[in-house]
Amino acid sequence: MKLYKSSLLGILAAGLLCGCTDRFDEMNTNPGTVTEANLKYILPTVQELACHVDATGYYQLADNLYAQKYCQYFANMSTSFPTDRYGYNDSWSEAGFWTPYYLVLKHMKVAKETAAANPDQSNFCQMIRIITAWNTIGMTDCFGDIPYSTAGVGETQNAYDSQESIYRDVFKELTEAAAALQANGGQETCDANNDLIFGGDVQKWIRFANSLRLRYALRIRFVDPAWAQQEGEAALASQLMESNDDNAYITCAATGGYSWGNPLYQICGWSEFAMSEKMYEVLTGLSTVEDPRLPLWFGVTQAYANCIATGASTAGVPKYKGLANGLSVVELGQPENSNTQNSFTWGLQAFPEYNTTGASGNCGNIPVTNVPLKVMTYGEVCQLKAEAALAGWNGAGSAQQNYEDGIRASLADERSFLSDKSLSDTSNDDTYITTGDVAWSSDPNKQLEQIITQKWLALYPSGVEAWAEVRRTGYPEMISVKHSEDPNIDPAQGEFISKIRYIDSERRENAANALSPSLNQGQGDGSTVKVWWHTANGQ
Description:
- The chain is mainly alpha-helical.
- The protein is built from 22 helices and 6 strands.
- The protein has helices at 5-17, 39-50, 55-70, 90-117, 122-143, 163-183, 202-219, 225-236, 263-267, 277-285, 294-297, 302-310, 329-332, 352-356, 378-390, 399-415, 429-434, 444-459, 463-473, 504-509, 511-514, 519-522; strands spanning 74-76, 146-147, 160-161, 248-250, 273-275, 373-376.
- The strands form 3 sheets. It has a two-stranded antiparallel ribbon. Strands 2-3 form a two-stranded antiparallel sheet. Strands 4-6 form a two-stranded antiparallel ribbon.
- The longest helix has 28 residues, at 90-117.
- The protein is globular.
């Protein structure tokens, strides 16, 4: 792991940006200067914090070392990292999840007060509310009950809100924000310098908010079917994402041929994580042809690339290979698990030269395509509508049509980032969709598995959301980790981690709340505690 000083400075800078309190009138400032910044200048900071754009800080610590391993997109390669074996690291959890969460909440509270005093800035406030709602759900889905309603004001003794109450407030926030954006008409907006996701396009923000509302309605459909249907049908009757043109991606700044922007690609060259065994299984074993996204996301093994570079035979050399999750330190040292024998995230999307020229070694010193960071896509929305149709919700349309449209949208979206479109062969798309276990089933139970598996792929590499869906539905069925450092989880019994425990500073400084046995439906805290919506349907 390479936690550079720049990451620490970024965290400190973010803290300074969040240093403004709600007591603007008491600030000791020069009366001749502006005392309140326009919210459009705060918006990009909130977006970067919420989306964990800080590569070696928030993104690596939270998304990569925890969520992307728990949903089995990736498997650990480093002998120093225990989280893939369910070992807990408090500093990673606090710095990766809790620090940006509190900073985002603080910005949101200031934004609401600022917009109340400056109605002409309402649009920016609504954008902040929507991305805060997205970030908040990700946080509560990982930890269960968390401080929310009274958090973000500098206190340490915050009460914990139930996950159900947080979901209720998030539905309210999304509904009100979309309605306000719709009502604001020609109010001031901004460009891509301030809005890193939609460049100030208000209609896209409205579609994003409504699409999130549908996502979260389905999240709760097994625990509260009536409420889920109410929220879901309201979302379906509103403006949702309609095509890949509405996709939500956050732009990650990058300059020069080797400045990589996207945090996933900033950390991928250290060979600390590889494609998982489960990901390989899904990408190669569902249809009669391999998933067209495989070469876009993952590079050929270094052993295979070296054969290409030297002209040696590739016979017996794996072109692509996935690694088991939860390997011990000893197992990671075995030849078949070495760096040269596994596939890393050096696919055609970001590293075309590595795969097309047989570049020896890893992806270092190879120009990279700056791919933005995924937040939500139309491909996922199609799968949301497919599940809503299975559930019988009004306005959802045809389950099969939505399912197949979602696959095609995902394929097109992932190819859109290629520097050379000829790198990806589209001739097998129809075969992929219409054969094997990808072909639409007549069995409703199998249909749900198909929808969620394709959603899991469409979400990649958004590990927090994918892990939530795995727990909610049980799909795709995860492979038991090889070893668990958590004594409460026995992989041999098919047990998986259900929640990340609360951080030590919360247990120490907010013990009356964080250690309450009433939390999480009377289960308290722990890695085997199931969050509110985690019913018997999920793992």
